[in-house]
Specification:
360 residues
Amino acid sequence: MAKGLKKTIRQIHLWLGLASGLIVFIISITGFLYVFEEEIRDFTNKEYLHVPVQQKSFIGLKTIIENYERLEPKQKMTALKINREEPNAAVEISTKKKKTYYFNPYDGSLINKQGSDWLNVVLEIHRTLLLGEFGEFIQGWAVVIFIIMLITGLVLWFPNQRRLLKQSLKIKWSGSFKRVNYDLHQVLGFYASVILLLIAFTGTYFKYDTVKKSVNLITGSTLRKGDEVLSKEKVDSAAIPVRYSAIYETANSKYPGAVSVSFSIRKTGELRLRMTYPNDWARNQNTIFFDGKTGQMLRTKLYKDNNAADIYEASNHDLHTGVFFGLAGKIIWCLVSLIGASLPITGFIIWWKKGKKKKK
């Protein structure tokens, strides 16, 4: 590669890194903390995530939601989760005020309620830097810049001579602090780059339609919004508990076998029902949309009809967190996230040391 071109790439890498380094560090370190969110919650909240197993059937959503409305008559719920794989798992109801209520699945009684815990704060920092939509905008572009940084870093890592390749693959621990720091930045960055690119790409998929369109282009398919339902049948009740219960029972009867079921209220007012089924790799998930006021089914997106773009969408979250590759994937994603957090630090030290050398 021409020296002039490599110098330009080095300058791009340097200044983009200085501009986005702090944000990349925050995103990486919070990602590292959140990878094992499920396991941490199971350990720290086990006293109310599950109740003792009883020889009873699920009491039904109607009773649980009625009990919730008695507790919080003015606070609308935003999400509801049922774990059908474990009959003794608590039913979770979330609210706009970021509170979560846990109900006994056998009798519908309240087990516990809690506000945002430290893991929710970690997730909010990861997504928005605690700055709302403005923070989300900054975070999104920092990840885009990080992708450019990773690509330019790979170009800079590639040695000009074959004899230097072996040297570029290992850290010289016996060297000076400056040399070890340089190797940590270059060598660890190289080994982690592919997974960091995957993590960053899947992160941008959540935010940007352009990224979704690129997946459509690569897969040669189009992400479906769902098939419109021809039937205009409505749930014959304005009462939310009855409506939710009827929707749940109907969907459960029509599409049996789900291991977890969750409701969420979208910004459009639609009610989204997600039903997750056992899977070997890509997540098997039926998504059904209802009118939030009438309970009328609007459209369905069934995993049996998924094309390549739909399969990728269903897998994107699990690819982003490492869940897609099981426990080993989560461990690797944790380590790689730590490396991602270290790159802005080692990169800054390289720049700082060069600046001090020039002054001398």
